[in-house]
Specification:
The complex is a heterodimer of chains A (about 170) and B (about 170).
Chain A lengths: L1 H10 L1 H8 L3 H28 L8 H29 L1 H5 L2 H24 L14 H27 L5
Helix pairs in contact in A: 2-4, 3-4, 3-7, 6-7
Chain B lengths: L1 H12 L1 H8 L3 H27 L9 H29 L1 H5 L2 H21 L13 H27 L7
Classes of the chains: A mainly alpha (about 170), B mainly alpha (about 170).
């Protein structure tokens, strides 16, 4: 059932167009890399500010306002390009352990962000100057960084376990 | 070309290269570190260039933003170099005999030159790019070139894997 759905995705016009040609997939992958580096770089800016490593002369709110629009627009591009690559070889990705790990880590990163924005960041308008952020905020930043490093690593390992080009 | 070929063959047979090739996790791990540093450079370059274009962080002086993000670039570049060299040692021919790798190095050199060109007038006058209409437009022009170069570097980096070396 699940495999049949994956197979029909793969056999769709979009799937065969990307999977069959030699140039479409690498170009989509280029866009994916551009998008994901922007996502991770901008999230790292916020995380490092929360931990207290960088941007300490700016408030957490300022750094967040500066970074998050970049994060969300790049994330949209990463999801679109990622989906296109998935469709081109859906059955194999669907059974690739590292792909599933990557999805799991992405969900965890999203949950961490939701929990932080939901209630851990209460009082964050006070986190200005070089003041240390509360422990809960520093933990949220460190968890986020770790998860995103995991997302990149899992993503790279997909390339080496699909039997195609790395 | 014969010399380069001989060098690549020799390098690929050194114990160091053989070790990197045989221990399966090294290449994806090194690539992960490489991508994380690309993320650092990418978001720094993006913020600086968007600021130069007047689209981002207009509330803070350019020099302040530069002081925050330019160190990220200069810290990432040596790690990128070290991880890049490791990847070359692992598969010398894949990179050194690949025209796309050469293109990447040319683009990289150009991007570094543009960055230095942008930094030079700021040594004496931190607000150089903020002043006067003409300078703001010069700044925008430079920002566009810089952004295009970095996008080219990332794309060339990914295409190295897809261009077959003769």
């Amino acid at each position: 059932m699940f495999d049949a759905a994956l197979q029909s995705l793969q056999d769709s016009t979009i799937g065969t167009a990307i999977g069959g040609g030699a140039t479409l997939f690498p170009w989509i992958e280029c866009m994916h890399v551009l998008a994901l580096t922007t996502v991770i770089g901008s999230i790292a800016l916020v995380d490092l500010r929360l931990i207290g490593v960088t941007s300490r002369e700016r408030s957490v709110a300022q750094v967040t306002d500066e970074a998050l629009p970049l994060t969300w627009s790049a994330f949209a591009v990463a999801v679109m390009t990622g989906s296109l690559m998935f469709v081109s070889n859906a059955v194999a990705y669907g059974h690739n352990t590292f792909f599933l790990i990557k999805l799991g880590l992405l969900v965890c990163a999203g949950l961490n962000m939701a929990v932080y924005q939901g209630f851990l960041n209460r009082g964050s308008d006070q986190w200005v100057d070089a003041a240390r952020t509360p422990l809960r905020a520093r933990v949220a930043g460190a968890v986020s960084l770790t998860l995103w490093v995991g997302v990149v690593a899992a993503g790279r390992w997909i390339g080496f376990t699909m039997g195609a080009v790395a | 070309m014969a010399t380069l070929n001989a060098f690549c063959t020799w390098l690929a047979q050194t114990p160091l290269s053989q070790n990197i090739q045989t221990i399966e996790w090294i290449i994806p791990a090194v690539q992960t570190a490489h991508i994380l540093c690309v993320a650092g450079v990418m978001v720094s370059v993006l913020l600086l260039n968007l600021r130069l274009m007047g689209r981002k962080a207009a509330d803070q002086p350019f020099a302040l933003l530069a002081a925050r993000v330019v160190p990220v670039i200069w810290w990432s570049l040596p790690v990128l170099l070290a991880t890049g060299v490791t990847l070359i040692i692992a598969e010398p021919g894949r990179a050194l005999q690949n025209p796309v790798f050469l293109l990447k190095m040319v683009l990289l050199t150009a991007a570094i030159l543009v960055t230095l060109l942008c930094q030079w007038p700021m040594r004496k006058d931190a607000a150089y790019w903020d002043q006067a209409f003409g300078r703001r437009w010069a700044g925008r022009f430079i920002a566009g070139i810089s952004l295009a170069l970095w996008i080219g570097i990332v794309c060339a980096g990914r295409w190295i894997a897809y261009v077959q070396v003769a």
